[in-house]
Every structure is written in C-alpha cells, then in structure tokens.
Amino acid sequence: MSLEEEVRALKDERDAVLLAHNYQRPEVQDVADYVGDSLYLARRAREADRSVIVFAGVRFMAETAKILNPERTVLLPDLRAGCGLADAVTADQVRAWRAEHPGAAVVAYINTSADVKAESDYCCTSSNAVKVVEQVPAEQEILFLPDMFLGDYVRRRTGRRMHLWVGDCPVHAKLRPEGVARARAEHPGAPLVAHPECGCASQVLPEVDRVLSTDGMVRFAEETKEPEVIVATEVGILHRMRRLNPSTAFTPLDAGAVCPYMKEIDLTDVRDSLAERRFVVDVLPETAARARRVLERMIAT
Ligand code: 13P
Ligand code: SF4
C-alpha cells in the first residue's frame, strides 16, 4: 500500500477528517479532505462531524479547531509546527498594552495563541481583517496585534485610529518593496498579488495589484486569463494555483519564501498521527470559553 493509500484508509478507520492549509506540502494537500486559508479551515473544523480532526497546518490553527469544536479530538502531526508570528505576543503583553489604553478594543489576528485570543475583543484573518475592524464602534481606539504589516494595511484601508503591535511573520516580512521593483522590471505587465503580511503590502500598495488572503489568491488564480502572475507569499500555495490554472505561469516573488513551521509536517507524520493518535491539542476550558467568543464573532462576520 502506498503512503497515500495508508492515509486514506486510516482516515476512514479512525473516523477522521484531514484539513490542510494552502502552504502544506503538495502530497499532504493532495490527500486532504479540505484545503484552504485560515478562515475556511476554521469553518470546516467547526462543522466537522467526524470524531477526529487532523490539522495539517500550524498550532494556532489546531487550537482554533479545538476551541470551535471541543467535542472532537484534534491532532497536530508535528508539535514543532508553530508560528513565528503567533510567538510575537503573549497574553501578559496584551493585558499590559490594554492597561496603557483604557477603553480601546483589542483586535487579534488569528495567528495568535488561544491565551492571546482569550484576552482580545475581536479576532480576524487575512481575508476579513478590514470587515472586522469596521465592526469596532467608530469612537473606540483599536489595538491591533501582532502583525504590523497587516495592521498598517488595514489602517490605510479603513482610516481608523489604530495602534499596531510591532510583530511580523519571518517569512513574509522578507518580501520587500525592492523585490517588487525587481519583479516588475523582470516580468513587465505581469500582475502582482500579495498577502497582507508581506513587508511590501503596506508600503508599496499602489505597486501591488491585489492584496489577498491565500484563498483569495487561489480564486484569483482560477479566474485570471493573464499569461503570468507574480505571487508574493509562501511558495506552498503555487501547487494549487498551478493545478487549477495550467495556462498561466505563476512565478513566486521569492522562491525562498518557505515557512519552516508549515513544512515540519510531511505525509509520514500525517500517517503516524492517524495511526498513533498524536499529538492531541487541548485548550484549557476557561481559556477556550473566552477565546470562543471572539472566534464565533469572527465566523459570523
Ligand atoms: P491565510 O489565512 O491567508 O491562509 O494566512 C495564514 C498564514 O499563516 C499566512 O502566513
Ligand atoms: Fe506563521 Fe508566517 Fe508561517 Fe504563516 S508563514 S504560519 S504567519 S510563520
């Protein structure tokens, strides 16, 4: 039996659903039941009716699945699959920041720990950040964390008074305006799509044709008739884009934009996770109850 067949058989045997993020390795995406961005996967996890959810993504995504569907067993195939951006802020830091700005609303990006979400008033993903910020009453100041590039992008789009936490994603922060200028010169006429975590997204906004979540980019890829598109995000997404639209050339802005956390998981880890029921992700009930408020509000947005 091939590894892929083993995974498929174990999914049935263990009554499991396999969710994979757009940055996962191609072979993991190909065997998953659902592939998508953070918001899409949070929704799929919330609605999952199998006993086990195997999350081929990173820890904050698995925690989100557990919070939204606490009756299920949630498995993360490799515990090293963390997130450099989520590590940029702790719950204690959120409490201290809030104390400096009484009355402000805390908007947390989904790329945060459950503890941080529990200290927040709103939660957003890259696909709904503008909408979520627009929900905050106009008179309220906003503390946005932890990604300063996404925060700056949302601040420009909404014109809201926002304080930004100084954090960034180690992969996307390296995608800079200089790289955009070089790509423009080397690929004249090719549209450029960028994830809002990019170090270029907020600074050279007029240079970027579309600022999109990873699923937004996949939809753009499906619909475009352009011969070439430059893609400014983690390179794992190119697998889906190329498969969905073989007539367009999808060129990464930086072929070295690889998330080491996402790549901790391979198909053997997924097989072992299903076979040995590992590694179980749990969230303390009190933390989960507080984080669920903001996640449910976000899902309803
Ligand atoms: P998306 O929600 O757009 O998939 O982004 C998640 C992420 O971790 C980007 O680095
Ligand atoms: Fe976290 Fe960045 Fe990896 Fe996304 S790409 S999971 S934000 S480290």
How many helices? The count is: 13
Beta strand count: 12
Rg measurement, Å: 19 Å
Describe the largest sheet.
4 strands, parallel
Hetero groups: 1,3-dihydroxyacetonephosphate, iron/sulfur cluster
Description of the structure:
This protein has 301 residues and is α/β, with parallel strands linked by helices. α6 links the parallel β5 (105-109) and β6. A four-stranded parallel sheet has the order 2-1-3-4, sandwiched between helices. α4 (59-68) packs across α13 (285-299). The protein is built from 13 helices and twelve strands. The chain folds into three domains: 3-82 and 262-282, NadA-like (Rossmann fold, 3-Layer(aba) Sandwich); 86-168, NadA-like (Rossmann fold), CATH 3.40.50; 171-252, Rossmann fold, CATH 3.40.50. The termini are far apart. Iron/sulfur cluster (SF4) binds at residues 58, 83-85, 111, 169-172, 197, 234, 259, 261-262. Residues 22, 37-38, 111, 125-126, 169, 197, 213-214 line the site of 1,3-dihydroxyacetonephosphate.
